Amino acid sequence: MICARSDDAARMHQDVRAFLTLLGKPELAADFEFFPGWEHSPYRAFNPSLKNRIRRLRALQRIRSGEARGLVTDAASLAQRCPPVASLEA
Questions:
Q1: Domain membership of residue 56 as a residue range
Q2: How many domains does the chain contain in total?
Q3: DSSP code of residue 30
Q4: Which residue, of 8, 19, 33, 53, is most buried by count of CB atoms within 10 Å of its CB?
C-alpha cells in the first residue's frame, strides 16, 4: 500500500496489523512490513537514523525472500534509492 505521507503510512501499517490480528490472523499481521523513508531535517547534515536503515533493509530482505506478503509505505519513501539486490542475498 502506498500512502501520501509517511505518518499516514505508519498509521496504516499499525491499522492493517491490528485489523488482521482482530480477524484471528496474527500470522498475516506479522507478514506486513513498514518501509520508512530517510527522515532528515533541513537544518542538520543528512544522516539517516540507524532504526530506519535497519527497517528498510529488513523490509527489502523479507520481500526478496518471500517472507513478507505486503508492504506499507509512502510515495517519497518508495522513490528513495535502495541497495542493489545482490547485497540483500547475503
A1: 2-88
A2: 1
A3: T
A4: 33
Give the three cell numbers for residue 65: 525472500
Residue that has been written with the C-alpha cell 542493489 in this structure: 84
Residue type at 73?
T
Q: Please, where are the H alpha helices in the chain?
A: 6-22, 26-29, 50-65, 75-79, 85-88
Per-residue pLDDT tens for 31-83?
A: 999 998 876 555 666 667 788 888 888 998 898 888 998 999 999 888 888 87
Burial 31-61 (b: 16+ CB within 10 A, else e): bbbbbbbeeeeeeeeeeeeeebeeebeebbb
